[in-house]
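Input record (one chain):
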Amino acid sequence: MSFARALRPLALGAALALLAASAGAQTTTLEATGKSSYYDDVTKETVVTGNARLAYGEIVLTADEIRYSTATNLATATGNFVLNYASRRMVADRGTYNLATRAINVRHLRLGEFPVYLSGDTVEGTLDELVFTNATVFFRENEGYTPSLRAQKLTYAHGKIVRAEGLALGLLGGHFISFPHFEQALDAAYVSYLSGRAGYRGNLGVLAELGLHVPVTNGVQIGADLGLYTSRGVMVGPSGTYERADATGAVHGYFRSGYIYDTGSDRQSDILGVPVPHNRSYVEWRHQQRAGDHLTLNGQFNYWSDSEILRDFNHKAFDRVQQPDSFLEAAYTGDNYSLSAFGRVHPNQYHRVQERLPEVRFDLMPVVLPLGFTEKFSASAAVLQADAYGLDPELRTNRLDAYYGLARPIAPTPWFAVTPVAGARVTHYTDALGGKDTYTRTLGEIGFDARLLASRTFDHKNEIWEIDGLRHLVEPKLSYRYAPKADDGRAYIPAIDRRAFTTYLQPLSIGDSRNLDDLTALNTLRLSLDNTLQTRDSVYGSRNLAALNFAADYRFDRPTGTRALSDIYTEFALTPAPWLRWSVFHRFDPHEPAQQELNTGIELIDQEWWSARLATHYLKGNYEEYFLEYRQRLNEVWDVTGLWRYDARHSRFNEQSYGVWQRLGQTWAVKYEVSWFNGPRRESSFALNIEVELLKF
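The corresponding structure, as predicted from the sequence alone:
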């Protein structure tokens, strides 16, 4: 071995030691490896070639050749430049990196920090802040179908685009949406909503819909929804979402809208029998906010120009809500009370709404008093209004209301308790009816709540169902309320808060009744029997496996047209595992006897491969429907779905839908769906849809 060759390891070690010292990090070890190395006397650089690797703390630099200088602390890498730092991976043709200042200067850099990938013609700056020229940003995967950003100049720091000039958004090689100013954290979804749908419906013609939101500031995305319908025209409207959270609170919400000059020749009539106009529009807004630990603000606003606009253009949303609500509520909760202000407005004229303009309410939670008594109190002041609708006249009143209740629990044994109760409610109305200017109603009630509790345990185990012992709880309950004057003053009270149609048992006490302006005399006994089957939970406490509950009312004084004994109500729930849920609601008339109502639902879920949901709905004299929805995963790319609604009364399928889901990489999901409809309905009898959904961007 020559003397010069023998000195190379010594020179290399000395250079590394000097470089580490000059970098100001005596505790950080600098390591360089490669197939060969030498010291260049001309450039005063140490050169490592052949799978060259330089490691310094969290920094690992590899290349075909690495040259570094102890005088400048500069490492120059040529050929297959790769710099790894924390979760980042930078790949380039060649570049330089200063170990002392952390400055970097490279050509044709590609940077990966999941789920973001950036590239640029030239990149300079530091590891904390990089400036790209002619930059491209991909999200999750670098594919032609993936949305991407391009910018003439882009500054990237700490997982965030802090500045961008000449920035545009697009895909498939075209970037068509420009931003004059841009700032976006890349640890959150960039485009929070991007969807598309194309297809055909008999009442709309060939259709194409597109929705897009893009960020305008931190937590705020603004965009628009666009719909093209060959038989109806063009619907367009602004939309957006907003969300922000910190230690002091959180806020999130969204809005969407649409306007169309409907050119359809057969627009038909709305639910009032009025012809649907050409000019049609809707506005929808939702808001939820929490400020600190005590204050919340929730609201929504829905304006429909006619009762059929969502039914015609978005029947799935209409199926969920046929009569939209518009309200705003601010609530402050203390340790044992709540104070709220609630406003409800009615921008639509095709159904009746109990408007509150507004209602201010105070609720005191049950408070323990001396001698074992508990009290509860509530009071409200409301401006109420109900517009004229059909044969119902317009009503308006100012209402003051207060309720005070006392209870005294008596529990002689752990398995038996009885609680006598008494309460009073005072309500004052302005704009009274029957020739009165004002009317004040004072009501009192007395009663009791009694219950027994029995249980038995069984030493039963089942590994398949994760059962570790069984406990059966049986709880008979008996409640009674007597308020014989609850129907006083009906002739003078503007009936705005009226009784709504429902087939379920309603609250028994006048203190819990929401139909405050439509009360009836109360002399009622309610009997219920609750059964619950539980097992030990593997994490904490117990979990319910099954429940079977019965309830019925006996009315000693009853309104005209009703019987003393009410229907018998039965509820059943089976939840032995997270993948199985079965529920049943049954209502039976003991006088005929006849089944009045039966609703069932069973859901089976395999988290990986399939799910099925079967439901039945029966209401005597109204409907008998069977519903089945099924989804099957075939592989990583394809799913198939099916939905059926069968009307047994008319022996027909009201709806059949067959769909195929396709995943394009990690970015897009595409649904191909064909549907048939039957029965008297505004919607067409056939629909073909292709829906595109952005999974993550």
